[in-house]
Amino acid sequence: MVIAVSKEPITRRIVEDEFTLQLKTKGLDAIASYTILADRSQDDQAVISKMVGELGVDSVLISRLVSKRSVRVYYPATVSHRPAHYSKWHDYYRDGFAMVNTPGYSTKYEYAMMETNLYDARSENLLWAVTTETGVHNLNQTLIKPYIGSILNIMAVSGLIRDSSN
After folding, report:
1. pLDDT tens digits for 37-65?
2. Half-sphere exposure (CA, 13 Å, Cβ side) for 32?
3. Domains with residue ranges and CATH for the chain
């Protein structure tokens, strides 16, 4: 069972659907929790445990946003001389004063820290955990697919899942 912890139902659905889709392409059976668990019940452990037992789920994958941070970077102004050809002395003299000015500017980079945990459904024990920091651009949803792909690749390298799609 895949659970994405989010206060925004649409975000929960997008993340759970993408995890489920990518797990299924690796030949694993997976179910998005939102398909059986209402948004208002997503933090009710008794309800989740009941559903896990009824469905015969063997593991629970939970992912959540831990924090976000912004970093402002200032790129200072630069002054450079343009390339010149010095075939004549007056070219050398003139081009010695020709400069290219680039004004300074600042930009903001945003990062999201995500935590993904895998639990054994029967014992409820933590089997595996990873915390990642990913650069985001206005929380662009197109980043979710490669992010989840990266998480599943880490799980494969760790020996937790096999890719039976090959």
Report:
1. 877 777 778 888 888 999 999 999 999 99
2. 20
3. 2-71+111-157 (3.40.50.10070)
